[in-house]
């Protein structure tokens, strides 16, 4: 990925900013989909849940809402704990990647306004 423009450079044109946002959103959503797929597969395999229930549990844990089904197997309990820890970091990473271009544009514009 191309680096962000330096504060001495002009503000990125809106069309290029939208393209940058789309690229970052693509990577963020890809990361989210991979995390959700791993969670769904893990709940289905380790907790013996049907795919729809595994998806529900994975999505609820990934967004911080909490588990839906009670884990009955030892493997399910271990997976749920590890996935919950991972999900806390993954969701913050998703948000960070998604909002980085917006934050950078805001700070860049702020610096341009201060220097003028």
**Strand element count:** 0
Q: For the terminal residues, how far apart are their CA atoms? A: 30 Å
Structural class: mainly alpha
Strand-residue proportion: under 5%
Succession of helices and strands = HHH
Low-confidence stretches: none
Shape: elongated
Describe this entry's structure for a reader.
It is a single chain. The chain is mostly helical and 116 residues long. Helices cover 75% and strands 0% of the residues. The radius of gyration is 19 Å and the shape is elongated. It starts with 13 loop residues before the first helix and ends with a helix.
Q: Topology of this protein?
A:
Blueprint: H1 14-46, H2 51-62, H3 74-115
Helix pairs in contact: 1-2, 1-3
For the structure shown, list the relevant keywords.
elongated; 116 residues; 0% strand; mainly alpha; 3 helices
Q: How would you briefly describe this protein structure?
A:
The protein is 75% helix and 0% strand.
């Amino acid at each position: 990925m191309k680096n962000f423009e330096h504060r001495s450079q002009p503000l990125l044109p809106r069309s290029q900013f939208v393209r940058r946002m789309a690229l970052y959103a693509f990577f963020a959503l890809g990361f989210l989909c991979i995390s959700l797929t791993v969670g769904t597969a893990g709940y289905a395999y380790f907790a013996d849940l049907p795919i729809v229930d595994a998806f529900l549990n994975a999505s609820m844990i990934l967004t911080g809402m909490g588990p839906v089904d009670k884990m009955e197997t030892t493997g399910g309990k271990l997976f749920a704990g590890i996935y919950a820890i991972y999900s806390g970091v993954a969701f913050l990473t998703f948000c960070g990647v998604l909002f980085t271009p917006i934050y950078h544009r805001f700070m860049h514009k702020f610096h341009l306004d201060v220097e003028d």
